[in-house]
Write a structure and sequence with these properties.
Blueprint lengths: L3 H21 L4 H26 L3 H30 L15
Helix pairs in contact: 1-2, 2-3
């Protein structure tokens, strides 16, 4: 069995890498969504680890709700990408979001 300290360290490293990715890549939409998904993955890892440590199901229930939020975020992100790609099929940038104002 993996120790709780190792899981927390792995989760912290994943969260730090995704935070660095968010700060570093402001222009590319796909990498922004991947970094946010990595953040949610690190949070889910902590929920599962502490749920297993305390022998209760509450952390796993939070993971279920977190996964539904991640799925909704992916669907909205895909819709935005399709809307941006239809205007300019060469490059998708988050700087072009002002084109979607209506």
């Amino acid at each position: 069995m993996i120790d709780i300290q190792n899981l927390v360290v792995i989760s912290m490293l994943i969260f730090a890498l995704s935070l660095i990715g968010l700060i570093h890549n402001r222009g590319n939409f796909i990498s922004l969504f991947m970094c946010i998904e990595l953040m949610l993955l690190s949070i889910n890892t902590n929920f599962i680890a502490f749920s297993q440590l305390h022998q209760n199901i509450h952390g796993q229930a939070f993971v279920f709700f977190n996964l539904t939020v991640a799925a909704a975020e992916s669907a909205i992100g895909l819709g935005l990408l399709i809307a941006l790609y239809s205007d300019n099929p060469k490059y998708i940038s988050s700087d072009t979001l002002n084109q979607l104002k209506g």
